[in-house]
Description:
The protein has 137 residues and is an alpha+beta fold. The protein has four helices and three strands; from the N terminus they run αββαβαα.
Amino acid sequence: MKFSYTHKVFSIALSLLILFSTLSLTIEKHFCGDTLIDVAIFSKTEKCADDLAQVEEASITKMSCCKDEIDVIEGLSETTLNSFEDLDVIHQQVLIAYSYSYINLFEGLPNLVIPHKDYLPPTVVKDIHLLDEVYLI
């Protein structure tokens, strides 16, 4: 019972590890001067008022103090599956020795000996409590 819960917890943890290692993120940052105005992970950044005014006044070209930075965090594109035969001979031997010593680390409980397992109680011929008029309260 205890091992089934730990097995489920480890399975979920490993699946989340695979999920997050293959996840790619794009983080967009919008700066006006040296001040960070907006950060967006799953959407576009909001532009400040200076950028919007420049878009409206296309005839006047002036240098903007605002800048955008885009950070891309790449995840794994491919996951590789290795089998036991792909390991070196020394790694195989170490893995076998470690697993053998780990399995033998836990000893099973000895079978409990119940000395009165085959004992049959005597047959009741008469109810002694009623005969002696002894009542338990």
